[in-house]
Amino acid sequence: MSDSPHLVVQREGHVVTLILNRPEVCNALGVQMLVRLADAWTRINEDPDIRVAILTGAGGNFCSGSDLKAMASGYGDDEWTRRIHAEKDLHWKALLRGFRVVKPLIAAVEGVAVAGGTELLQGTDIRIAGESAKLGLTEARWGLFPLGGSTVRLRRQIPYTQAMELLLTGATLPAREALRMGLIGRVVPDGQALLEARRVAERIAENGPLAVQAIKRSVQETEGLPEEEALRRELEIGWPILSTEDAKEGPRAFVEKRKPSFKGR
């Protein structure tokens, strides 16, 4: 397994699946994985034929966060480490800290999803977890800081007091509790998270890609704005979509009682 890429990329139609691939360490985030993730986000954004992305982990776990053993012993001198040092903020891009994937991003979570694993989740749009999944931000337990954006993003995604309890105690919580507080959106039987994520991804991929991307952009860019300003921004983003070829194809397909054939134009 040590010779395998630390991130496996699979493509099926308009859906790409990224698999964190260090199962022997619960998919801990090493430098190779971070570099490959950063490159994958760029490819997803730039390839117009990719409409949806899924992020999951190999071996029954999502991600256990940073590789603390490598952090304690010091990283080696290889091509991956050199890239991390050479390209400013590459590691933050990998963690989706301030970098936005413009296509819908679905997390399929099984097993452990703690520390950097839960930080990565906060950069995804739809989150599906297996019944036995465990989530949490454990950095404070080891004297560390969750620099993947959690002190900013978590409070915006779940209630303040729940966010603070997670951040300050470093406790882990089961999938059902994470569902109750809104950190994830759906719980499925163990082993079914990726299958369900693929079902959701296929439904999204059948929709007009320009409309889908504009909807995601509008939701993100209007967050926190006063309503009047937010509605102006929504109009700026959404109105041009109605002049696209896809916007003509959709109603035409409805009238002709057939499935639309969207081209992303």
From TrEMBL:
GO molecular function list: catalytic activity
Name of one Pfam family that matches: ECH_1
InterPro entries assigned to the protein according to its UniProt record, in alphabetical order: ClpP/crotonase-like_dom_sf, Enoyl-CoA_hydra/iso, Enoyl-CoA_hydra_C
Entry similarity comment: Belongs to the enoyl-CoA hydratase/isomerase family.
Annotated protein name in UniProt: 3-hydroxybutyryl-CoA dehydratase
